[in-house]
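This section describes the prediction task in plain terms. A model, or a person checking by hand, is given the sequence of a single protein chain and must write out its three-dimensional structure as a string of tokens. No templates, partner chains or ligands are provided. The sample shown here is typical of the held-out split.
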Amino acid sequence: MPKLQTRYWFSACALALALACGARATPALADSGVTRAIDPAKSRAQFSIAHIFVEWVTGTIPITGGTVELAAGSAIPLAVSATLDPAKIETGDRDRDAALAGPEYFDVANFPQWTFASTRIVATGPSAFAMDGSLTIHGVAQPEHLDVTVAGTAVAPVYHATGHIDRHAFGMKGARLDPVIGNTADVTLDIGVLPAR
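The expected answer:
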């Protein structure tokens, strides 16, 4: 076989081999992440906000669902989504809970769910990461930042996130006593996941 034809033959073989390897590698990359469902029984959001008459008001809002996408062998997520139920807010005062769920604040009759979807996750340590995402409350989506630590294992991770939310950014009307309530709510989220199927 002439040298030029031999060179072309080897080049074609190399190209075919590279394409074949690439074709096999692509599904492996696609399958490298596993999606785990959030466990509502082990998950909740808690908030704390200043109030001129009682110093601080704290409360919880259940996390009712969502997913955490994990890379194989890692507890640092690739993506996170969550759904919360503001109608089940608990602050230890039924009248206050009803007022917060009403039309002047959360308006749960028209906006029965809050949602969060991550847009960027960056590891800040072997068991910690920073997460940016879009939080939708009262029908208004706003960018939010959370700092998250991981406990447990890659098989059974538990996440603890902290952040700060400007309650006026979500278009709530507010009530007559609104000026006595602080602008920023400190938020913590504890999230567990269900076993992989």
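For orientation: The chain has a mean pLDDT of 83.
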